[in-house]
Amino acid sequence: MSETMSGLRLDQVKPDMVGVIGKHVMPLLEKACAYSNGRFDPSSALERCAGMNQRDIWQLWVIFDPEHASAETFGEHVKAVACTSLNRYPTDELVAEVILTGGKGPSEEWLPLFEDLKAWAKHNGASRIQYIGRRGWQRSMRALGVDWKPIATMYECELEVPDGDK
């Protein structure tokens, strides 16, 4: 994959390496999952990225500083992590989805590498890439000139469970 001016690099983690890399990215995955309102947790995300759940196959992406990272210090040099998937809709349209994103430091340093996710999606036959996230991402993307346009912001309401139902 490509590198930014700051020397950061985006790599897709091979499924058989997810276990090794997972321990290094756990804090960022925890951060990303905290915004999911209980939909995801780091363990289940890593299982899907490792191919352990055949129903939902995800990809793990890591943005890191390759110049300073070593086997022992890799986690210290990871700037961001993302989980993606390819989803075929009932209309047969294939759409890439960025499911989770967690980062540290100024997003302006690593967010430009998300352009590579668009290239990956296109290479895999997707007609578009989508991301549902917190509103703050819109400011970051606009400041970088990234051409993501907001289509919707997802809101939700907890439903009360009737007495006696689980």
How would you characterize the overall build of this protein?
This protein is α+β, with helices and mostly antiparallel strands. It has a single domain (9-144), classed as Gcn5-related N-acetyltransferase (GNAT) (Aminopeptidase, 3-Layer(aba) Sandwich). It is built from five helices and five strands; from the N terminus they run E-H-H-E-E-E-H-H-E-H. It has a five-stranded mixed beta sheet. Helix 1 crosses helix 2 (42-49). The chain is globular, with a radius of gyration of 17 Å.
Note the topology.
Layout: E1 9-13, H1 18-34, H2 42-49, E2 58-64, E3 78-88, E4 94-103, H3 107-110, H4 115-123, E5 128-131, H5 136-144
Parallel strand pairs: 4-5
Antiparallel strand pairs: 1-2, 2-3, 3-4
Helix pairs in contact: 1-2
